[in-house]
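We treat protein structure as text, and this decision shapes the records that our systems exchange. We quote a single record here, exactly as it is kept in our systems:
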Amino acid sequence: MSPIISNEHFYFNYDTSKSVDENFTAWRIMNHEERSAYGEALHTFEEGLAIFEKQYSVKVSSKNG
């Protein structure tokens, strides 16, 4: 029996043609959807920002949630 939720549905691909801020926004939305689907607590803006910047070795310029 296959799972109801597929991990492939939540795969984020960093788009180098977009700004860091645009990528962060897209990643954050997808991360919220994934965590919600699995019943996990959502990251705060600050937690998500730290995770994204570390994972992609970038700095997001918009630091407000």
Notes: The chain has a mean pLDDT of 88. The CA atoms of residues 17 and 23 lie 10 Å apart.
